[in-house]
Amino acid sequence: MKSDMKGRGRNKLERTDRLVRLSLLVVAFSAVSTLAVITIFMFEQGAPIMFKYGLRSFLAGSDWYPTEKIFGLWPMIVGSLYVTLGAMVIGVPFGLACAVVLTEFSSRPVRRVIKPVIELLAGIPSVVYGFIGVVILVPFIRENLGGPGLSVLAASIILGIMILPTIISISVDSIQAIPLSYREGSVALGATKWQTVKMVLLPAARSGIIASVILGMGRAIGETMAVIMIAGNAASVPRSVLDPVRTLTSNIALEMGYASGEHRQALFATGVILFIIIMILNTVANVTSSRMKGSKG
Amino acid sequence: MRVDPRVEQRVVGALLWSMTVVTVAVLVFIIAFVLKKGLPAVDWGFLVENPVDMGKGGGIFSTIIGTIVLTAGAILVATPLGVGTAIFLTEYTWEGPVTRIIRFGAECLAGIPSIIFGLFGFILFVTKLKFGWSILSGSLTLAFMILPTIIRTSEEAIKSVPPGFRTVSFSLGSTKWQMVTRVVLPSALPGIVTGIVLSVGRSIGETAAVIFTAGSALRIPASLFSSSRTMSVHFYILAREGISMTNAYGTAAVLIVAILGINILTYYLMHRFIRKYS
Amino acid sequence: MTTAIRVRGFSHYFGGERTLRGLDLDVERNEILGIIGPARSGKSTFLCALNRLNDLIRGSRIEGTISVDGRNIYDPDVDVVELRRKLGMVFATPVPLPRSIYENIAFGPRLAGSHDRAGLDATVKDSLEKGGLWAEVRDRLDSSALKLSGGQQQRLCLARILALKPDFILLDEPTSGLDPISTMKIEDSLRKLKKEYTIVLVTNNTKQAARVADRTAFFLNGELVEVGPTARIFTAPADSRTDDYLRGKFG
Predict the structure, then answer these.
(1) Cα-Cα-Cα-Cα dihedral of B242, B246, B250, B252, to 10°?
(2) What CATH number belongs to A54-295?
(3) Mean pLDDT in residue range C19-46
(4) A248-273 pLDDT, tens per residue?
(5) Quick check: C83 contacting A, CB < 8 Å?
(6) Which residues of B fall within a CB distance of 8 Å from C82?
């Protein structure tokens, strides 16, 4: 069977192939274009009002009376920062402890049970976390520590639990990515397991762990429904961890249902600020984790 | 003061282990608590009857339908986009500025909070495109939210297909598209399905992005343009407005069971996938 | 004898690295041309240049011409898919696709749009017979190809390209991972197949070239050191480097 290798009907397939490539290229930009469209809409909807009333009064104003056109987001910015920091204080140590136990301190069968269980945490809907907070944690705080119960503390604890899967899974990945020779080298020098973890593994996995913490922060700062249910939502700067607090996200979700006109724009402006914070965190996490890949060659 | 390393090892080990146990215990507690309080409220009637009196009575049938329709819509839109993106990234281009932009975009999208997706969906689909609070707006919003997950899991699944399969396929005279459809996709299918199932779980549990795009009508949706309430939204409204704690627990139990089921399915699929190549 | 493949002034680059240097080489019809040489001497790169599999690797670039049946295969209007069907290739590691034995063999014909079951059945049987595997698998064509032994898998790969009805068979160290008996079976098949096909056999086992090749070429550092009738290459090589290699002084 001789042929001159010039396509017979095959050329149609080749043309299809080029068409396929072009369509896939268009499809592949769907995520990027979505990101672009989201960015454009957020700014289009939220930016004008910020400039109309002045960035300074918007960001630093401590009163939020949207019906009287007083739009100060300071309490919400502070609120978001407080609950996020609180979540980190709880989530990071527990998350890292789990990561170390899962990678270095446990046997294979134990790991096989614990890891999927922890990954299940990520699947529980945030409204369920919020609900647990309302029916268990809030009354507990109210009765034992005082205050209304709906508080910075309650929100921090629930968010701290919610970010665990993010921190654990990325930290586990980065600890596991460390070459075995590091461990062997350290153990051969007579180090205990913990010394190996402390002196060799944690430093070597540093950028991955940092990335996991930053992504956890992003998750905490962006969480909405759970926070609405347990944080109390008072639009004022909390004086203690037992005071109620309102975050940027809850500010949007609470009032979006009925807001209109400038009030709605102000909520989009809240979204813009949240968006900027998240993008900064994303970029930092991205740079850190790509540095992690880079340093491994 | 120097501590004996062996003592330190023991103390730290015990500390780390107890923290891990606490973490696992919290999770088990959450699930057990919701199931214990909620399952008694769940019977056949609860699943197949529509809510009565804003959810005070009756069941959750219409919200189950709402959840299924909304999730199915999101998956139908996001899967071709996500898998297509993954195929493009792995098979149709070299690593370079373009792939970096696409990956960066997907990663950023993954980090965007659901409330922002809610705002975006509200402005674009509900108001600008005039879809109103509807299944269509909700599904599209959810689709873009789960898109990064589908891209990432599909890309990993496709990358784990042995490179030899591709060479062999080419050497047997396949075009690239034939190679992708006949060799790569079948081999990567369990991994891709895992990603889809994960996204289903995420869609079912999502509230913030859905409540502002699909609305919260309690009727069974009649068309793509009807508003619909998902189980998560229903649960949120029941619990937040104190309409009925019994029904709230019941709804939560159904949600948790659904998500547990989906996670177990994901695990099963993933293990099959891993076994296949090891 | 007629010339089936004519290589003239052919160089190949990966990025900045020159992996083949100005090759001039002919492959005669219905011969087995053995290609020997140490690792990284360019043998496999040369083989993959013949069916343009190198195109799949980023940064691959060529100079010169390779003519197959009188046509330069690097001409822009050459149908690469057709070319690859004409020059079937067997790789060093057997790569059965995760399908049944039958579907592995039928894969190539199906790609070309052949769906007639009876025709496929005949092709599968014929290919497996020529590949020397039919007797062993005739009763389990529907079982997974992954369950075959290494030697069987490699014969399956050989049969799989025969189903393409190619004119050429390219083999890249096809027995490097196999036991002596499997190796012998493949070599037997090759001797029979050369009546119908033109065969290029890259091997890291010089004795294999001595056993089956009609002519043998010696590659070193991307250059063709010499080529000639196998008996002469092994008894009276013209180049001292060939002699050194065959005596095991390097490689």
Answers:
(1) 30
(2) 1.10.3720.10
(3) 93
(4) 999 999 998 888 889 999 999 999 99
(5) yes
(6) 173
